[in-house]
Fold:
Amino acid sequence: MGLNDTPSANRIHIGFFGRRNAGKSSLVNAVTGQDLVIVSEVKGTTTDPVSKAMELLPLGPVLVIDTPGIDDTGELGELRVRKAKQVLNKTDVAVLVADARDPLSETDRELISIFRAKGVPYVIAWNKSDLTAPVVEGEAAVPSVPAPFPPRAEIRVSAKTGSGVPELKERIASLAKTEEPKLQIVADLIRPGDFVVLITPIDKAAPKGRLILPQQQAIRDVLEADAAAIVVKEFELKETLENLGKKPALVITDSQVFAKVSADTPPDIPLTSFSILFARFKGFLLPAVRGVKTLDSIGGGDRILVCEGCTHHRQCDDIGTVKLPRWIKQYTGADPEFVFTSGGEFPGDLSPYKLILHCGACMLNEREMRYRQECAADQGVPFTNYGITIAFIQGILKRSLQVFPHILAELEEREDAGATSFAK
Structure:
C-alpha cells in the first residue's frame, strides 16, 4: 500500500474554517495545489464540507476538509454551520481563515474558543494579505490577536499570489506532529518469524475483489512486523492449523464467525478479532469492555444506538442492522428499540439511549472516536462495539482478551468483586 492508498482514517485531518467569503476555498486550492473546491465571490459557495485525500508535503498523507462559512444564516445556513462544527470532531489541525483587511469577528473568536475547548491545534491564516498595506518593519504582521490566544498561532497569506502558503504548510506540519507513540493494530503483539492466522469470510458488503479495510490493515501490520500472515476462510481453519506444522502466535477472526473459530482453535492458541484489535487501535477498548455488561440489564423499551462509521450498502443480513439486533434480542430475551446512524452522523443528545453499540471504526480517525466516547462518558451512557458484543454474547470475551493481560486482569477483579461473569 503506497501513500496514496493510505486509508482516510489514518491520515492527518486538516480542516479549514472561517466566515463566508474569507477565501477558505481559494486557500485550500492554494495549499493543495489543486482546484479542489469551486471558488466564487458569492458568499456561501461552499454548502457542504468537501474532503480530499492527498499527499501534502512535508506532512505526507492527509485529508483536507473545506467547510461552509460558519456565519451562514437561515434554516439551511444553520444546518451548514452544524456540519462545519461536526468536522471539528475529527480535525487534527484547524486553519482559521480570516480576512486580513478586518479584525477578528465574534464568529472567528467563537471558533477559536471551540478549537481550544476541543484541544484542536490551530493556526490563523490572515488571507488576502495582498490587498492590505505593506508591513513596515517593526509593525505587527497581522491584526493583533488578544490573549488568551497563544502567540505565533497566526500567519499572513495570500491565496491569490501564493505568498505565505509554504510557511502555512510548514506551520500545519509542526502542529500535526505528536510525540505520543502511535498504537499498532497487531504488530506489537507478535514477533518476527511468527505465524498469524487471519480468518476472513468474504464480506458481501465489501467491493468485489477487495477485502474489507480492517482485514487489509491487519495483514499489512503483520507483514511489517516481519511475521507471516496466513489468510483463510472460516471453514478452512481447522485443516490449516492441523497442517501448519507450527503453532501460530495468534488467530484473528472476523467477529461474525467468532463461535465457529473459537471451537476450531485449540485453547492454547491466542484468539481475538479484528473488531477488538480496532477498538484498541482507536483508543476505546477498555471502555468498550466495561460497557458491554450493560446488555445484562437491557429490557423491553430500552433504546440502543447502533453506529456504523461508514455508509456502505447494507445487505439483507447486515451485521449492524440485522444480525446484532437479532443476537441481542436472543441473549436478553427482551425487545429493545434499535436506532441506527452511519458515517459522520452522531447525535449530540445521548440521554435517550441505554447503550451505544459502535462498529470497529476503521473509517473514523482516533480523534473522532475519542469525541464520541467522551460524549458518551459525559452523559453516562455505556459504549461498546460489535466485536466485543459478539464475544460477550457467545461467552468467549475473556478468551478473546487474553492477548491484553491488563484488561483481562480488570475483568477478573470485577468478577471477584461479585460482578456477573464475562464468560457465562
Q: What stands out?
A: The chain has a mean pLDDT of 81. The chain has three domains: 3-176, 187-277, 282-416. The domain at 282-416 is CATH 3.40.50.11410 (Rossmann fold). DSSP finds 14 helices and 14 strands in the chain.
